[in-house]
């Protein structure tokens, strides 16, 4: 049997077992990479070890999408603490780096998964007793962005364009930034956050977002301290300064300014002196087509019919079936391709099981 098929089957089984055993204790699961080392001890057959070794993040993502966890994620069960991404990251690392630790830790000869579980449960209990689970979780890389939109579809060219704008060669001392503009509801924010999740590993220093419609940036920076493990100072200003300095230092970070309603705001003292530069790259979304400091804005257009149908199909898979495509296209046309309208109808369609072609 092809090794990739073995790998996918093994990864799917491991992911589903992992969730079954720890669904009521996700915070401790995300905090404990040791869980994955222990869980891998359950799969110690030569075939499984061969299939799992050197599995990539893409392998784990593909397995996740074909597992029962994809539906669980869609219902929001994984959104607390962004556990989905961290499970993928940790499992990938375990497959690539940590097989030897099974031998070093002496767990390779454990034959009963109950023994492994007992060990894991004890570790989790110790963490709970020590109060460690009550402390805010520092994610890797650190971030404060919202959970990934599992229904996001299309926009491949826009995402690639955005990446090119943020990574192209530039003069020393010039902060890389990209402006994304479009009318309300067209999907600017979704594109920015999908980019952040898609390229999360390209920004090991962290990925952070602030609201562009607020008069002050400093308090928003100060609120990021907890995500970076920075101790809060006696006043918000010095805390915000420490955050700014951290974001500007290597390694690369991504900073999203979402919904900048007044472009001139970023030129005011309350913003410009607090904007992180250096190793920090910025995405700014706005309904306006000009932002100071950005020579060429990237437009986000309405969804095409095909993209709209694909979005509806994320909620109702039968929307993309041949007999239903015309009805689905009518929905997209009714909203003139505005993503927010198509998405709202998609949610309704998922609840209402009336056949799409029925008036």
Report on the architecture of this protein.
- With 359 residues, the protein is an alpha/beta fold.
- It is 50% helix and 7% strand.
- The chain contains 18 helices and 5 strands.
- It has a 5-stranded parallel sheet with strand order 2-3-4-1-5, with helices on one face.
- Helix 1 (3-22) packs across helix 4 (46-52), helix 3 runs antiparallel to helix 9 (113-130) and helix 16 crosses helix 17.
- The longest helix has 20 residues, at 3-22.
- The chain starts with a helix and ends in an 8-residue tail after the last helix.
- The model is unreliable at 32-38, 77-83 and 97-113 (pLDDT under 50).
Set down the secondary structure blueprint.
Elements: H1 3-22, H2 26-31, H3 34-40, H4 46-52, H5 57-66, H6 69-74, H7 83-97, H8 99-104, H9 113-130, H10 156-167, E1 177-181, H11 188-198, E2 206-211, H12 218-222, H13 225-228, H14 236-248, E3 253-258, H15 269-272, E4 280-286, E5 298-299, H16 305-315, H17 325-334, H18 339-351
Parallel strand pairs: 1-4, 1-5, 2-3, 3-4
Would you identify the CATH H-level superfamily of the largest domain?
P-loop containing nucleotide triphosphate hydrolases
List low-confidence stretches: 32-38, 77-83, 97-113
Kindly report the CATH topology of the largest domain. Answer: Rossmann fold
Quick check: average pLDDT?
A: 75
Give a quick account of the main beta sheet: strands, pairing sense, barrel closure: 5 strands, parallel
Order of helices and strands: HHHHHHHHHHEHEHHHEHEEHHH
- The CATH class of the largest domain: Alpha Beta
Structural class designation: alpha/beta
How are strands sequenced across the largest beta sheet?
A: 2-3-4-1-5
Tell me what portion of residues adopts beta-strand conformation: 5-15%
Tally of contiguous helical segments: 18
> What is the count of β-strands?
5
Q: How many distinct domains?
A: 3
Helix content: 40-55%
Which architecture of the largest domain would the CATH scheme give at its second level? 3-Layer(aba) Sandwich
**Basic shape:** globular
Give the terminus-to-terminus CA distance. 49 Å
Q: Could you tell me the radius of gyration in angstroms?
A: 23 Å
């Amino acid at each position: 049997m092809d090794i990739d098929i073995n790998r996918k089957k093994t990864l799917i089984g491991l992911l589903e077992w992992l969730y079954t055993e720890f669904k009521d204790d996700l915070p401790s699961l995300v905090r404990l990479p040791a869980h994955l080392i222990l869980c891998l001890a359950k799969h110690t057959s030569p075939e499984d070890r061969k299939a799992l070794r050197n599995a990539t993040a893409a392998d784990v993502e593909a397995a996740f999408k074909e597992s029962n966890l994809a539906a669980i994620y869609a219902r929001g069960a994984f959104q607390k603490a962004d556990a989905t991404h961290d499970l993928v990251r940790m499992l990938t690392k375990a497959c690539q780096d940590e097989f030897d630790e099974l031998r070093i830790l002496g767990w390779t000869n454990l034959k009963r998964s109950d023994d492994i579980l007992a060990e894991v449960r004890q570790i989790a209990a110790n963490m709970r007793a020590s109060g460690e689970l009550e402390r805010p979780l520092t994610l890797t890389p650190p971030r404060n962005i919202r959970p990934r939109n599992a229904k996001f579809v299309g926009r491949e060219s826009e995402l690639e364009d955005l990446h090119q704008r943020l990574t192209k060669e530039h003069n020393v001392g010039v902060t890389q930034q990209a402006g994304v503009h479009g009318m309300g509801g067209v999907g600017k924010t979704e594109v920015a956050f999908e980019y952040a999740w898609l390229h999360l590993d390209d920004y090991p220093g962290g990925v952070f977002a602030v609201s562009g419609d607020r008069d002050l940036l400093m308090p928003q920076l100060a609120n990021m301290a907890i995500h970076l493990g920075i101790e809060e100072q006696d006043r918000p200003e010095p805390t915000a300064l420490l955050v700014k300095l951290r974001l500007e230092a290597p390694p690369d970070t991504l900073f999203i300014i979402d919904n900048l309603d007044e472009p001139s705001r970023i030129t005011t003292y309350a913003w410009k002196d607090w904007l992180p530069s250096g190793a920090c790259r910025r995405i700014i979304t706005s309904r306006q087509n000009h932002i100071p400091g950005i020579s060429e804005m990237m437009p986000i257009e309405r969804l095409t019919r095909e993209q709209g149908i694909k979005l509806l199909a994320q909620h109702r898979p039968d929307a993309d079936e041949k007999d239903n495509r015309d009805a689905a296209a009518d929905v997209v046309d009714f909203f003139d391709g505005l993503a927010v309208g198509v998405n709202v109808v998609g949610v309704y369609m998922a609840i209402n099981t009336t056949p799409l072609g029925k008036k």
